[in-house]
Design a protein that fits this description.
The structure is a single chain. The longest helix is centred in the middle third of the chain and has 25 residues. About 35% of the residues are buried. The chain has ten helices and three strands, in the order αβααββααααααα. By secondary structure, it is mainly alpha-helical. The chain has a three-stranded antiparallel β-sheet.
Length: about 250
Protein backbone atom coordinates (compact mmCIF):
# COMPACT_ATOMS: atom_id res chain seq x y z
CA UNK A 1 0.00 0.00 0.00
CA UNK A 2 1.47 3.31 -1.00
CA UNK A 3 1.85 6.03 1.59
CA UNK A 4 -0.97 8.53 1.45
CA UNK A 5 0.14 12.11 0.92
CA UNK A 6 -0.21 14.41 3.91
CA UNK A 7 -0.39 17.54 1.77
CA UNK A 8 -3.40 19.57 2.88
CA UNK A 9 -5.53 22.09 1.02
CA UNK A 10 -3.47 24.97 -0.32
CA UNK A 11 -0.03 23.40 0.43
CA UNK A 12 2.62 23.69 -2.26
CA UNK A 13 3.70 20.50 -4.01
CA UNK A 14 7.38 20.62 -5.01
CA UNK A 15 8.10 19.84 -8.64
CA UNK A 16 4.50 20.13 -9.76
CA UNK A 17 3.65 22.21 -12.79
CA UNK A 18 1.37 25.02 -11.64
CA UNK A 19 -0.71 24.58 -14.76
CA UNK A 20 -2.01 21.21 -13.56
CA UNK A 21 -2.18 21.82 -9.82
CA UNK A 22 -5.70 23.19 -9.78
CA UNK A 23 -5.11 25.40 -6.76
CA UNK A 24 -7.19 28.42 -7.78
CA UNK A 25 -10.56 28.53 -6.01
CA UNK A 26 -12.14 31.82 -7.17
CA UNK A 27 -15.42 31.99 -9.15
CA UNK A 28 -16.34 28.45 -8.16
CA UNK A 29 -19.84 27.24 -7.24
CA UNK A 30 -20.50 27.49 -3.50
CA UNK A 31 -21.86 23.94 -3.35
CA UNK A 32 -19.47 21.85 -5.41
CA UNK A 33 -21.10 18.47 -4.91
CA UNK A 34 -22.76 16.56 -2.08
CA UNK A 35 -20.51 15.08 0.56
CA UNK A 36 -19.82 11.36 0.04
CA UNK A 37 -22.38 9.07 1.66
CA UNK A 38 -19.57 7.26 3.44
CA UNK A 39 -16.29 8.84 4.63
CA UNK A 40 -13.32 8.41 2.31
CA UNK A 41 -10.90 5.94 3.89
CA UNK A 42 -7.17 6.55 3.94
CA UNK A 43 -6.37 3.28 2.17
CA UNK A 44 -6.41 3.59 -1.59
CA UNK A 45 -7.51 7.22 -1.33
CA UNK A 46 -6.87 8.05 -4.97
CA UNK A 47 -9.00 5.13 -6.17
CA UNK A 48 -11.88 6.08 -3.90
CA UNK A 49 -11.72 9.71 -4.92
CA UNK A 50 -11.62 8.71 -8.60
CA UNK A 51 -14.69 6.51 -8.12
CA UNK A 52 -16.52 9.31 -6.31
CA UNK A 53 -15.68 11.82 -9.03
CA UNK A 54 -16.86 9.42 -11.72
CA UNK A 55 -20.15 9.06 -9.87
CA UNK A 56 -20.43 12.85 -9.62
CA UNK A 57 -19.92 13.08 -13.39
CA UNK A 58 -22.72 10.60 -14.09
CA UNK A 59 -25.17 12.24 -11.69
CA UNK A 60 -24.35 15.73 -12.97
CA UNK A 61 -23.05 16.96 -9.61
CA UNK A 62 -19.91 17.89 -11.52
CA UNK A 63 -21.50 20.15 -14.12
CA UNK A 64 -20.33 20.43 -17.75
CA UNK A 65 -18.42 23.64 -18.43
CA UNK A 66 -17.69 24.38 -14.75
CA UNK A 67 -14.10 24.62 -13.47
CA UNK A 68 -13.29 22.79 -10.24
CA UNK A 69 -10.10 23.12 -8.23
CA UNK A 70 -8.36 20.28 -6.44
CA UNK A 71 -8.30 22.00 -3.01
CA UNK A 72 -12.04 22.70 -2.98
CA UNK A 73 -12.86 19.13 -3.99
CA UNK A 74 -10.33 17.83 -1.47
CA UNK A 75 -12.07 19.80 1.26
CA UNK A 76 -15.32 18.02 0.42
CA UNK A 77 -13.68 14.60 0.68
CA UNK A 78 -11.62 15.43 3.75
CA UNK A 79 -8.32 14.52 2.08
CA UNK A 80 -5.31 16.39 0.74
CA UNK A 81 -5.36 17.97 -2.69
CA UNK A 82 -2.82 15.48 -4.05
CA UNK A 83 -5.05 12.40 -4.55
CA UNK A 84 -7.82 14.62 -5.90
CA UNK A 85 -5.47 16.20 -8.40
CA UNK A 86 -4.20 12.78 -9.45
CA UNK A 87 -7.76 11.52 -9.90
CA UNK A 88 -8.70 14.57 -11.96
CA UNK A 89 -5.64 14.08 -14.13
CA UNK A 90 -6.81 10.52 -14.78
CA UNK A 91 -10.21 11.88 -15.79
CA UNK A 92 -8.41 14.30 -18.11
CA UNK A 93 -6.72 11.33 -19.79
CA UNK A 94 -10.15 9.74 -20.20
CA UNK A 95 -11.53 12.92 -21.77
CA UNK A 96 -13.97 13.75 -18.97
CA UNK A 97 -12.25 16.98 -17.91
CA UNK A 98 -9.63 19.33 -19.30
CA UNK A 99 -6.86 21.19 -17.51
CA UNK A 100 -7.35 24.93 -17.06
CA UNK A 101 -3.90 26.40 -16.29
CA UNK A 102 -3.63 27.91 -12.81
CA UNK A 103 -7.32 27.31 -12.09
CA UNK A 104 -8.16 23.62 -12.02
CA UNK A 105 -10.16 21.28 -14.23
CA UNK A 106 -13.14 22.03 -16.45
CA UNK A 107 -15.78 19.35 -17.00
CA UNK A 108 -15.99 18.75 -20.74
CA UNK A 109 -19.19 19.93 -22.44
CA UNK A 110 -20.80 17.28 -24.64
CA UNK A 111 -23.71 17.49 -27.03
CA UNK A 112 -26.12 15.12 -28.76
CA UNK A 113 -23.74 14.56 -31.65
CA UNK A 114 -20.96 13.20 -29.45
CA UNK A 115 -23.39 10.92 -27.64
CA UNK A 116 -24.68 9.62 -30.98
CA UNK A 117 -21.11 9.02 -32.18
CA UNK A 118 -20.27 7.08 -29.02
CA UNK A 119 -23.41 4.96 -29.43
CA UNK A 120 -22.44 4.24 -33.05
CA UNK A 121 -18.91 3.17 -32.13
CA UNK A 122 -20.20 1.01 -29.29
CA UNK A 123 -22.64 -0.64 -31.68
CA UNK A 124 -19.88 -1.30 -34.23
CA UNK A 125 -17.90 -3.11 -31.54
CA UNK A 126 -20.55 -4.86 -29.47
CA UNK A 127 -23.27 -5.86 -31.93
CA UNK A 128 -21.08 -8.06 -34.21
CA UNK A 129 -19.39 -9.61 -31.17
CA UNK A 130 -22.64 -10.48 -29.39
CA UNK A 131 -24.09 -11.87 -32.62
CA UNK A 132 -21.01 -14.06 -32.97
CA UNK A 133 -21.32 -15.19 -29.37
CA UNK A 134 -25.01 -15.93 -29.95
CA UNK A 135 -23.95 -18.62 -32.42
CA UNK A 136 -21.36 -20.26 -30.17
CA UNK A 137 -22.24 -19.75 -26.49
CA UNK A 138 -24.60 -22.39 -25.05
CA UNK A 139 -27.89 -21.37 -23.47
CA UNK A 140 -26.77 -22.31 -19.95
CA UNK A 141 -23.91 -19.81 -20.10
CA UNK A 142 -26.31 -17.03 -21.04
CA UNK A 143 -28.62 -18.09 -18.23
CA UNK A 144 -25.78 -17.53 -15.76
CA UNK A 145 -25.96 -13.81 -16.58
CA UNK A 146 -29.58 -13.54 -15.46
CA UNK A 147 -28.70 -12.19 -11.97
CA UNK A 148 -26.71 -9.34 -13.55
CA UNK A 149 -29.57 -8.45 -15.89
CA UNK A 150 -32.05 -8.47 -13.02
CA UNK A 151 -29.66 -6.34 -10.96
CA UNK A 152 -29.85 -3.64 -13.63
CA UNK A 153 -33.65 -3.56 -13.24
CA UNK A 154 -33.36 -3.14 -9.47
CA UNK A 155 -30.75 -0.41 -9.94
CA UNK A 156 -32.95 1.36 -12.48
CA UNK A 157 -35.93 1.15 -10.16
CA UNK A 158 -33.96 3.07 -7.54
CA UNK A 159 -33.94 6.06 -9.89
CA UNK A 160 -30.24 6.65 -9.17
CA UNK A 161 -28.43 7.12 -12.46
CA UNK A 162 -25.01 6.40 -10.90
CA UNK A 163 -26.20 3.10 -9.42
CA UNK A 164 -27.72 2.11 -12.74
CA UNK A 165 -24.62 3.15 -14.68
CA UNK A 166 -22.47 0.80 -12.63
CA UNK A 167 -24.81 -2.19 -12.98
CA UNK A 168 -25.33 -1.46 -16.69
CA UNK A 169 -21.57 -1.60 -17.29
CA UNK A 170 -21.31 -4.80 -15.25
CA UNK A 171 -23.89 -6.55 -17.45
CA UNK A 172 -22.31 -5.46 -20.74
CA UNK A 173 -18.86 -6.35 -19.41
CA UNK A 174 -20.00 -9.87 -18.49
CA UNK A 175 -21.55 -10.41 -21.93
CA UNK A 176 -18.42 -9.33 -23.80
CA UNK A 177 -16.15 -11.25 -21.41
CA UNK A 178 -17.53 -14.46 -22.94
CA UNK A 179 -15.45 -13.62 -26.03
CA UNK A 180 -12.26 -14.05 -23.99
CA UNK A 181 -10.78 -10.82 -25.39
CA UNK A 182 -9.61 -8.56 -22.55
CA UNK A 183 -8.70 -5.69 -24.89
CA UNK A 184 -12.18 -5.71 -26.36
CA UNK A 185 -13.76 -5.60 -22.90
CA UNK A 186 -11.49 -2.73 -21.81
CA UNK A 187 -12.15 -0.61 -24.90
CA UNK A 188 -15.90 -1.25 -24.84
CA UNK A 189 -16.15 -0.33 -21.15
CA UNK A 190 -14.23 2.90 -21.68
CA UNK A 191 -16.65 3.89 -24.45
CA UNK A 192 -19.60 2.86 -22.29
CA UNK A 193 -18.40 4.95 -19.35
CA UNK A 194 -17.93 8.00 -21.59
CA UNK A 195 -21.42 7.55 -23.00
CA UNK A 196 -22.83 7.81 -19.48
CA UNK A 197 -21.57 11.35 -18.82
CA UNK A 198 -24.39 13.95 -18.93
CA UNK A 199 -25.03 16.25 -21.85
CA UNK A 200 -24.74 20.05 -21.75
CA UNK A 201 -27.86 21.55 -20.19
CA UNK A 202 -29.11 18.25 -18.81
CA UNK A 203 -30.36 18.50 -15.24
CA UNK A 204 -28.98 15.93 -12.78
CA UNK A 205 -31.03 12.74 -13.04
CA UNK A 206 -32.97 14.17 -16.00
CA UNK A 207 -33.38 10.80 -17.71
CA UNK A 208 -35.70 9.64 -14.95
CA UNK A 209 -36.55 6.28 -13.45
CA UNK A 210 -38.92 5.30 -16.28
CA UNK A 211 -36.19 5.69 -18.90
CA UNK A 212 -33.70 3.73 -16.83
CA UNK A 213 -36.14 0.90 -16.20
CA UNK A 214 -37.01 0.66 -19.91
CA UNK A 215 -33.32 0.42 -20.78
CA UNK A 216 -32.75 -2.22 -18.08
CA UNK A 217 -35.61 -4.42 -19.31
CA UNK A 218 -33.86 -4.62 -22.67
CA UNK A 219 -31.11 -6.58 -20.91
CA UNK A 220 -33.49 -9.34 -19.78
CA UNK A 221 -35.19 -9.38 -23.18
CA UNK A 222 -31.80 -9.79 -24.84
CA UNK A 223 -30.92 -12.68 -22.55
CA UNK A 224 -34.25 -14.37 -23.33
CA UNK A 225 -33.49 -14.12 -27.04
CA UNK A 226 -29.93 -15.39 -26.58
CA UNK A 227 -31.09 -18.36 -24.51
CA UNK A 228 -33.76 -19.17 -27.11
CA UNK A 229 -31.22 -18.88 -29.94
CA UNK A 230 -33.39 -16.33 -31.72
CA UNK A 231 -30.78 -14.62 -33.89
CA UNK A 232 -33.10 -12.11 -35.56
CA UNK A 233 -34.52 -11.04 -32.22
CA UNK A 234 -31.01 -10.66 -30.79
CA UNK A 235 -30.00 -8.39 -33.66
CA UNK A 236 -33.15 -6.27 -33.38
CA UNK A 237 -32.81 -5.88 -29.61
CA UNK A 238 -29.15 -4.92 -29.86
CA UNK A 239 -29.85 -2.27 -32.49
CA UNK A 240 -32.68 -0.85 -30.40
CA UNK A 241 -30.56 -0.90 -27.25
CA UNK A 242 -27.71 1.10 -28.77
CA UNK A 243 -30.00 3.49 -30.59
CA UNK A 244 -31.52 4.53 -27.27
CA UNK A 245 -28.40 3.98 -25.16
CA UNK A 246 -28.32 5.86 -21.83
Amino acid sequence: MRKVSTVRTGDAVPGRDDAVRGEHTHSEPAAVLPRPRTPVQRSSVRGQVLAALRTALVTGDLRPGVVYSAPVLAERFGVSATPVREAMQQLALEGAVEVVPNRGFRVVERGDRELAELAEVRALIEVPMVLRLARTVPAERWAELRPLAEATIRAASSGCRATYAESDRAFHRAVLALAGNEQLVRIAEDLHRRAQWPLVGAAPGSLGRVGLVADAHQHTALLDALIAGAQDAVRSLLEEHFTGAV
